[in-house]
């Protein structure tokens, strides 16, 4: 019985080891360096504010009074890329996208200066009384996506958010570096980002459309382009969760 047990052990050990053997990714650089725009050092902050329903109008009014002052003040190395209310998706929600030109040092400089800004301190206090919850993420932009620049309206915006399976960001980037060319004909591609701090392995694609019917028409047209269906087929298994928000820009938003 002892001989029989020892005779099977090498095979058992080999089988057990196979469960834990993983092929090591030969890349010698961080995913952020491989995927992000090299010509810029911009860092983005995406804010989600869930507002008390009865306070949404007051919240929007307050933001429209204070946020442009930060955006336009040359003393702060940051810019308001866009600010919206969610129309379809999570209700009574505000979404703000900021760019910090100079990366983390710029972010630290802005935050330090704002702590000394009495008007902003009062703004945050008043704003806090209107919120149910809030969260933010720090993002980098994909190298192959359009730079988010101001545009005239009226437009609606769709923020498509993807929670990827850990370890699949490079694969996602490789596929979407090819897929984005299928979605440029109508100038609908605004920006593409991936998270660095906050909820990780998150990807956000931002699109602009004239209206919901235009969105439907543009998305359907992509399926008639050879190769789009194959790229969708290979990217879907990389996703754990996905969410779509249709958003309306506030009057102060550079993205209209």
UniProtKB/TrEMBL annotation:
Pfam families according to UniProt: NIPSNAP
Gene3D superfamilies: 3.30.70.100
Coiled-coil intervals, chain numbering: none
Principal subcellular localization: mitochondrion
Annotated InterPro entries: Dimeric_a/b-barrel (IPR011008), NIPSNAP (IPR012577), NipSnap_domain (IPR051557)
Single GO biological process annotation from the record: mitophagy
Residues of the NIPSNAP domain: 157-254
Keyword terms of this UniProt record: Autophagy, Mitochondrion, Transit peptide
Keyword Mitochondrion recorded: yes
A single Gene Ontology CC term: mitochondrial matrix
Places the protein is found: Mitochondrion matrix
Membrane recorded as keyword: no
PANTHER family reported for this sequence: NIPSNAP-RELATED, PROTEIN NIPSNAP HOMOLOG 2
Family: Belongs to the NipSnap family.
Protein name stated in the entry: NIPS2 protein
């Amino acid at each position: 019985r002892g001989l029989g047990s020892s005779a099977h052990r090498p095979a058992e050990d080999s089988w057990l080891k196979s469960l834990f053997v993983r092929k090591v990714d030969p890349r010698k650089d961080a995913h952020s360096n491989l995927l992000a725009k090299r010509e810029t050092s911009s860092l983005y902050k995406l804010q989600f504010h869930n507002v008390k329903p009865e306070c949404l109008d007051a919240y929007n009014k307050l933001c429209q009074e204070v946020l442009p002052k930060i955006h336009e003040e040359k003393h702060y190395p940051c810019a308001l890329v866009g600010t919206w209310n969610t129309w379809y998706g999570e209700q009574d929600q505000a979404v703000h996208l900021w760019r910090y030109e100079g990366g983390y040092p710029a972010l630290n400089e802005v935050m330090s200066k704002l702590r000394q800004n009495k008007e902003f301190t009062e703004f945050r206090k008043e704003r806090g009384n209107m919120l149910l919850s809030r969260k933010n993420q720090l993002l980098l932009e994909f190298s192959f996506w359009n730079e988010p620049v101001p545009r005239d309206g009226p437009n609606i915006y769709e923020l498509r958010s993807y929670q990827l399976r850990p370890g699949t960001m490079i694969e996602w980037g490789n596929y979407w570096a090819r897929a984005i060319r299928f979605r440029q004909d109508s100038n609908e591609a605004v920006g593409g980002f991936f998270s660095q701090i906050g909820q990780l392995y998150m990807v956000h694609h931002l699109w602009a459309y004239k209206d919901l019917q235009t969105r439907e028409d543009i998305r359907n047209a992509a399926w008639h382009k050879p190769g789009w269906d194959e790229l969708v087929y290979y990217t879907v298994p990389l996703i754990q969760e996905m969410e779509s928000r249709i958003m309306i820009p506030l009057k102060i938003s550079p993205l209209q």
